[in-house]
Amino acid sequence: MIDVHHNSEAMARVLVQYIADPFKVRRLVKAEFQRAPNIDTIKALRARFERPAPAPINHTWEIDLHSERMKAANAAFLNAIERAGRQVVRP
Question: Is 43 found in the same domain as 12?
Fold first, then answer.
């Protein structure tokens, strides 16, 4: 791999894209170049490729908020119809 990667950090940059363990990345790079970036550097390279975990979804809050807004909107609509002189059947 020496002819593919021009230095040890370039090889580490490629390996961290699919190997999560920084010690394994360091070991593989050191086997090819006899020197390798330190663990902190490899962790920093890996941090560029990690995706954050998805945020938890709280369905009950959204449903409760939606239902409260709908109740308020329906009440306001029925009140407006009654003020206009129309007959309204309330649920």
Answer: yes
